[in-house]
Write a structure and sequence with these properties.
The protein has six helices and two strands. By secondary structure, it is mainly alpha-helical. α1 (6-27) packs parallel to α5 (125-151).
């Protein structure tokens, strides 16, 4: 997803990192674990995925020309548990993310100051993107937390393992030295 804009490239990079983080947590869960709730008021990973996908479709389809809260969105239903296979859930999730990437990829620096509307409230394109980065990152970390909790000792860390920070930093420094030549 190449872009000449450093701001848009950074936004795309952040969205891709958020998706990758959530995807790696989701991959570790069984089909049944996707639907487990910690308590009656909590959301399962599946519900969070459905909510994010619904938000993505609403915000990013016709991003520059229509309110980001589409009249067709049934937000409250995103928080209901539904019988969905992993394949169906993943397809909905992937479609939501594709809406994000399809909307951002053609943008230019000139678009960053354009005004878009979300729930009747005007935002610059830049602010609307920043708002969604924060929203999606928050939910991605909810997914990560739930996956880590549900998997317990079988969880495979997605960052530097405990006790290995110094070794990681040494490897990164050595890699940087090699790249600089």
């Amino acid at each position: 997803m190449p872009t000449d804009s450093p701001i848009l490239a950074a936004a795309l990079d952040e969205f891709q990192k958020i998706k990758k983080l959530a995807d790696k947590a989701i991959e570790q869960l069984s089909d049944d674990q996707l639907h487990i709730k910690l308590d009656a008021e909590a959301n399962s990973v599946a519900v969070i995925m459905r909510h994010m996908a619904g938000n993505m479709r609403s915000r990013w389809v016709d991003f520059l020309v229509s309110d980001g809260e589409k009249a067709t969105r049934l937000r409250d239903q995103e928080f209901e548990e539904v019988a969905q296979s992993r394949a169906e859930l993943t397809a909905e999730w992937e479609h939501g993310w594709q809406c994000v990437f399809d909307a951002i990829t053609p943008l230019t620096d000139a678009d960053l100051q354009r005004t878009v509307v979300i729930r009747g409230e005007p935002h610059s394109v830049y602010k609307a993107m920043s708002r969604q980065v924060a929203h999606y990152a928050g939910h991605a970390y909810q997914i990560l937390f739930l996956a880590k909790h549900l998997l317990g000792p079988s969880w495979k860390t997605l960052s530097i393992p405990r006790g290995q920070s110094e070794e990681f930093n040494r490897r990164m420094l050595a890699k940087l030295r090699v790249e600089k030549g």
